[in-house]
Design goal:
The structure is a single chain. This protein is of the alpha/beta class. The protein has one domain: Alpha/Beta hydrolase fold, catalytic domain (Rossmann fold, 3-Layer(aba) Sandwich). It has helices at about 5-20, 75-80, 105-115, 120-140, 160-170, 205-210; strands at about 30-35, 45-50, 55-65, 85-90, 150-160, 175, 180, 190-195. It has a 6-stranded mixed β-sheet. Helix 4 packs across helix 5.
Length: about 220
């Protein structure tokens, strides 16, 4: 009677040792696209990595840090996609590499500092929501190369630095004041990974993150 639980435990330990989270699968395909944003004059470049398996796969969106681009952190996208995820790297106009490109170091720093504002934070959130809409349409379009490749019921969000702040906002971080709270939460996002996130600057953690209810 005792042998079975012990054998099961040994099997579980053996299986756990056999799992390697760093092991990469087949190289993913890369697709570069540009999607419309919520602002008429704005467009969002994206880089998409597709896993070898053509079955619908969960989607991970990635928002770059200040002064970055869709090319940043692509090693993560390649690895995640080799493990079976569709990964989508966004480039946010107004807070991307175009802000500092061609400037002297001093001017580039000043330009980046100006770009780190609330307006760009809101535009970034709008970019993500617009890209989600574009992905849903592409997934449903038989003529699109993304047709049927995306599991839009399982969408994760990630980002670095200001990209992490973008992720926090989309996951439900509230801003404004306790008397007039504001939220730009997107319910389509079901999980998140924040890389170098930021605390709330003006409100308590209890107020800011009370509505965040996803892993």
């Amino acid at each position: 009677m005792r042998a079975f639980p012990i054998a099961a435990l040994l099997f579980a330990i053996s299986s756990a040792r056999g799992y390697d989270p760093l092991a990469a699968g087949p190289d993913p395909a890369q697709v570069d696209r540009t999607f419309p944003s919520q602002v008429a004059s704005r467009a969002v470049p994206v880089r998409i990595f597709l896993p070898e398996n053509r079955e619908p796969a969960p989607v991970i969106l990635f928002s770059h840090g200040l002064g970055g681009s869709r090319e940043g952190s692509n090693f993560l996208g390649r690895h995640w996609s080799s493990r079976g995820y569709v990964t989508v790297f966004l480039q946010h106009p107004g807070s991307d590499s175009e802000v500092w490109r061609g400037h002297t170091p001093v001017d580039a720093f000043a330009a980046l500092k100006r770009a780190a504002n609330v307006g760009n934070r809101i535009l970034r959130v709008g970019d993500v929501s617009a890209v989600l809409v574009a992905l849903e349409r592409a997934n449903a379009n038989p003529a699109d190369e993304l047709h049927g490749r995306l599991d839009m019921k399982h969408v994760g969000m990630s980002g670095h630095s200001i990209g992490a702040v973008t992720t926090q906002t989309l996951c439900g971080e509230r801003f404004g004041s306790p008397a007039r709270p504001k939220s730009l939460k997107d319910p389509r996002i079901t999980a998140a990974i924040l890389m170098s996130p930021s605390p709330s600057e003006r409100n308590t953690p209890e107020f800011s993150f009370h509505a965040v209810d996803i892993p």
